[in-house]
Design goal:
Blueprint (H helix, E strand, L loop, with lengths): L2 H13 L6 E2 L1 H10 L8 E3 L2 H11 L3 E6 L12 E5 L2 H14 L6 E6 L5 E10 L3 E8 L4 H4 L2 E5 L4 H10 L17 H17 L3 E11 L5 E3 L3 E4 L14 H6 L5 E5 L8 H10 L6 E5 L5 E2 L2 E4 L11 E4 L3 H4 L3 H6 L4 E4 L9 H16 L3 E3 L5 E4 L4 E4 L7 E8 L2 H13 L4 E6 L8 H9 L6 E6 L5 H12 L4 E5 L13 H4 L3 H12 L2 E3 L2 H13 L8 E5 L2 H13 L9 H8 L12 E2 L7 H12 L5 E5 L4 H15 L5 H29 L3 E4 L10 E2 L8 E4 L2 H20 L2
Parallel strand pairs: 12-13, 12-16, 13-15, 16-17, 17-18, 21-22, 21-23, 23-24, 24-25, 26-27, 26-28, 28-29, 29-31
Antiparallel strand pairs: 1-11, 2-5, 3-4, 3-5, 6-7, 6-9, 7-8, 9-10, 9-11, 14-15, 19-20, 19-22, 30-31
Helix pairs in contact: 3-4, 13-18, 14-15, 15-17, 18-24, 19-24, 21-23, 22-23
Length: 732
């Protein structure tokens, strides 16, 4: 069989009258063999005498299967018999199968009984967003019952296949097992690579199911069953607009703004965005447009954008949806580069709004104008003090690019970044993404030198394949952190195979993230926790963690958290124990975590921290409870002053000041040690108050001190760094 023969088979099956378009098992296995997938030897016969002759040639015991173009799952119809020992049992099986299938059997397959105690499943299904997805996991009768399977987006490379083997819960079955040799992984990879290549070669193949793949005693895998399901090639409806990234970047640096739909009424979008922008130190020119004219915020209001004497770079539009398209011609005359389209009433309201959106985007694209939105909450660029959004939050300039498909989520994250001193490179509420999509934003920040981390809140992607490829490329240079909202299910699938039936949009999206290097989180605050460590600390070189704690309980909890996240807490070496013995009292823990036992000497945390960072047995340090003691001390002093009149208030204040000074000195010292040893140091504050922050800076240093309010957040942040570092090393 040749590739052209496969296409002929596919075309013939697609043109057949059968309701289910599929390729039967024997032909499917011939296609598998063409792509170097090891398959069981078999014979296809229809005549009873020939069936018996084939059984004798194969050698008893045999496997007998009835195949039919209309019956995909043979086992459910009783069309598979394993271990038939003589001709009589074969004849009985043939008779029973014909009755069960109501004579709807095209032929019988005769196979040898393949021995082996381990069964896996391999397959492929077409995801509407991400294209061909390869499946591997526990097979046989356990496939759908236990669902111990993993997904990867095709095409596959060696790293992808190794990761598939590592991910399944039953991965021990890949090792030597009950007297049988370890699985020959290179042979198993041939199956997965073959599935990937078949999917690429033949777009009409919708699903492929190889279940089971039996592992023989010598570790060799062999496909003993197979199914290929076909579909007509579907036209992709998603319209792709080529976005000029230089023009998109200029929307974050507008030299002139026109607020079209400017309003004098507080609370309206046309007033809120205007006053928010003007309340900062934005240096660009600002023009207001409203047909009523007059003045708003003491500024002249133009009745039309064409009345403005100069060109406009960015138009901020808040007028009703059905009026926006009439602006395009005038905006083109003013050489507008982009429209920040706040207005809602487009795709999100139904078919009528969808048609209006498509018409608008087509007109804008032809005019050379970008549309950000519609239905967006705005954008900001702290580096030029440009805050044109509904969020009255003003984070400092930084290196984290933030894009949110939810306005509320964007507001929350920007406010948190401002409170915790986390710097933002730029922000965009992406809205409906009618023209500029999440992939465009990723590709923009990929080439932006000021961006060190890309943070995304996503509810859906318009082009999964492009999202996957863009993320994989960006991740090679800088971390991409994602929170996925709207974890919806596609519902019941009209899937003909086991692999197709197990597909879900959430599992495929998660697989795409892992494969492309994206760090996924489950909570909104984790987005900025990771952005804080990625922008402030060096990447760890491994997963070994030294823990320093002011109290044993937190150390135990942190150790457990590290273990749960796949981080190692190694034993202290003899040398570092001897060095710590010179610093700590005799009753210290002598182990990792290092409990510094509440000593009041302010130099002890510093010297212990440096000894741990010197130690070549760790890649990162988590320290707990040293920072934040001032909150406890301050409350204690307040209680004392209220109840003991003999206490000198000046002395009490001096003590409070000394504790505050110690914490400032300590955070600065941690910065210096991080820079000196190039290892990440993550802190957990004992308590927090209104002046507590996540990041603490020191002039002249690249890195920062990072503190979290709980061990969970510190460990999760370090886990994210390790996960990203592992991905980068495996894809270098």
């Amino acid at each position: 069989m040749k590739l052209k023969d496969v296409q002929k088979i596919i075309d013939a099956r697609l043109n057949a009258c059968s309701k289910t378009k599929s390729i039967p098992e024997d032909e499917a296995k011939k296609i598998f063999a063409l792509f170097n997938i090891p398959v069981v030897k078999e014979k296809r016969e229809t005549d009873t005498n020939q069936i018996l002759a084939a059984c004798r040639e194969t050698g008893f015991p045999v496997v007998l299967k009835g195949i039919s173009a209309t019956i995909l799952h043979k086992t459910e119809k009783g069309l598979v018999r394993v271990g038939l020992h003589d001709e009589t049992s074969v004849l009985d099986a043939v008779k029973e199968m014909r009755i069960s299938a109501k004579d709807d059997i095209d032929a019988f397959l005769i196979q040898p009984v393949v021995s082996g105690k381990r069964e896996f499943v391999a397959g492929m299904f077409k995801d509407p967003q991400f294209g061909p997805v390869i499946v591997f996991g526990l097979g046989g009768i356990y496939t759908e019952a236990l669902k111990d399977i993993v997904f990867k987006i095709a095409p596959l490379n060696d790293v992808d296949m190794e990761d598939m083997f590592e991910q399944i819960s039953s991965k021990k079955l890949l090792n030597a097992f009950r007297g049988e040799q370890a699985v020959k992984k290179q042979e198993l990879k041939k199956i997965l690579k073959g599935l990937s290549d078949i999917a690429h070669a033949f777009p009409n193949i919708k699903e492929i199911d190889i279940n089971p793949v039996i592992i023989q005693p010598d570790g060799s895998p062999v496909a003993v069953d197979g199914l290929i399901v076909l579909e007509e090639t579907r036209e992709i409806k998603n319209k792709r607009y080529d976005i000029d990234l230089i023009k998109l970047a200029s929307c974050y640096y507008p030299k002139s703004l026109a607020f079209i739909g400017a309003s004098a009424t507080p609370g309206k979008w046309g007033h809120m965005l205007l006053t928010n922008t003007l309340s900062r130190d934005y240096k660009g020119k600002v023009y207001l447009v409203n047909p009523r004219g007059g003045k708003i915020t003491g500024r002249q209001v133009y009745t039309s954008v064409t009345q403005i004497e100069e060109d406009i770079e960015l138009a901020v539009v808040t007028i009703p949806a059905n009026q926006v398209i009439d602006l395009i011609r005038d905006l083109k005359k003013k050489h507008v580069k982009g429209i920040l389209l706040i207005t809602s009433g487009f795709r999100e309201v139904g078919k009528k709004g969808e048609k209006l959106e498509e018409k608008l985007v087509k007109a804008a694209y032809e005019a050379g104008i970008l549309i950000l939105g519609p239905n967006t909450m705005g954008i900001c660029n702290p580096h030029i003090d440009f805050y044109c959004s509904a969020a009255h939050a003003y984070p400092i300039p930084g290196s984290t690019a933030l894009v949110c498909q939810s306005g509320n989520m964007g507001t929350q994250l920007l406010a948190f970044a401002e409170r915790q001193d986390i710097g933002i490179r730029a922000f965009s509420g992406s809205g409906n993404e009618a023209m500029v999509t999440i992939e465009d934003y990723m590709e923009l920040f990929e080439i932006d030198d000021l961006t060190r981390t890309v943070v995304l809140y996503i509810e859906s992607v318009k082009n999964g394949s492009r999202f996957f490829k863009s993320a994989a490329r960006v991740s090679r240079q800088k971390p991409v952190v994602v929170l996925k909202g709207g974890r919806t299910s596609m519902g019941e699938k009209a899937a003909a195979s086991h692999t197709g039936a197990m597909a879900s949009d959430t599992r495929v999206f998660n697989a795409a993230c892992r494969q492309s290097g994206i760090i996924q989180v489950n909570q909104p605050m984790e987005l900025l926790d990771l952005s804080a460590v990625f922008s402030s600390l060096p990447l760890p070189k491994g997963k070994r963690v030294a823990i320093m704690t002011l109290g044993g309980g937190w150390g135990v909890i942190t150790t457990d958290l590290c273990a749960e996240h796949g981080l190692e807490v190694p034993k202290l070496s003899k040398g570092i124990i001897e060095r710590l013995n010179k610093i700590l009292p005799p009753f210290w823990s002598h182990g990792n975590p290092v409990d510094i036992v509440g000593e009041n000497d302010p130099s002890i945390p510093k010297t212990c921290m440096e000894e741990l960072l010197k130690w070549d047995g760790c890649d990162a340090v988590i320290h707990l409870g040293i920072h934040g003691k001032r909150v406890l001390v301050n409350k204690m002093i307040e209680s004392v002053l209220k109840t003991d009149p003999s206490i000198d208030k000046a002395q009490a204040q001096s003590f409070k000041d000394a504790i505050l000074q110690f914490e400032e000195d300590y955070t600065q010292y941690v910065v210096k040690l991080t820079q000196k040893y190039e290892k990440p140091v993550l802190g957990v504050s004992l308590l927090t108050d209104e002046i507590s922050r996540t990041l603490y800076r020191l002039d002249g240093y690249e890195y920062k001190s990072v503190f979290f309010p709980s061990p969970e957040r510190a460990v999760k942040a370090l886990w994210g760094m390790c996960q990203y570092n592992d991905w980068r090393k495996s894809h270098s």
